[in-house]
Amino acid sequence: MMLIPLVLAVSIIAFAIIELPPGDYVSRYISDLEMQGKRLSEEDVTRMRASYGMDKPIVERYFSWIGNILLHGEFGRSFQYNEPVKNLIGERIGMTLILSAITMVFTYVVAITIGIFSAVRPNTFFDYVFTLVGFIGIGVSCGVDGGGSDEGFFVI
Question: Is the pTM of this model over 0.90?
Answer without folding.
Answer: no
